[in-house]
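Hi C.,

You asked whether I'd gotten around to modeling the 297-residue construct. I have! Everything is below, sequence then structure, no commentary in between.
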Amino acid sequence: MHAIFAIEPDAINNWKDLRYVLEKFGYSKGLLIARYPKSWMKMVMDACHSNGVGDIELARVEEKLRTVKDDRLVRMGLRYEGANWLTSVNDESVLNELFAVLIKSQPTSDKLYNIDDAHENLFENRREVHVKRNASALAEAAKYVLAVSDKIVIVDPYFQPRRKYTKVLDSMLHICQANGALPSQMIIFSDYTNDSRSAAVVKDEYERLLSAWIDQGVRFNVSRVAGDQLDQDFHARYLFNQRAGLRFDRGFVEPEAYDEREHDTDVICLDTAVVNELWTRFIERQECLKIFDQLSF
């Protein structure tokens, strides 16, 4: 879903260029910057200092980097070896994980772009993607939102304790596990009228299907919302945390028919304002929702 860029520290070694470039990125725009290597922010500061940036602008650079750390930078765990940054980023195993690399000098491969000559099209059309309706593809679309989530919220009125739904959840948690960061909590909101069985029966089914993750310490909270909640635009399907979110147009389900899994569905990055609104509504002011029952396991 998100396109990951690497940026050479020397290419943004002043306040003006750094501010201009960083404003192009963000979870809501579908564009993220690899924190490559993990000391990347320090390397940017060192590049600015070596370029003779004064104390006032240097303070602006430091504050800007601190501000964008959580909503534009992502840790990739990519290998960093070589005489310098350019040598390291040109390693094939590194380039294969990146969408593009912005550099100060002239490019020497297809994925490298001179930062002054990079066309605006390079930074466009990443807010919405089409993905196959199989569990793996749906989960992969959420990879970088999941990577920064200790608490993941899913809103899908049709979500039920059935394999075709929890299979997508399994794939998402496998991605978290591969990144070494399983969430502590998964919070799900569904519509009670789409599965009106008793709370005990529904809870037993969820526990059976998700037992492997429960055993690993992931806690689940399912809120089944009363049917008239649909009057408040509960139709959309969302995945979000405090930083970022996505809208899945066809929800979190892998169709049982194999041919339907080859059909495309849209996944769209949410604006920051929408993410904040969702977090407030479903987490901070949850008591205002018409919740039929809550299941915790």
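If it helps when you're writing up: Residues 185 and 219 are 5 Å apart (CA to CA).

Thanks,
B.
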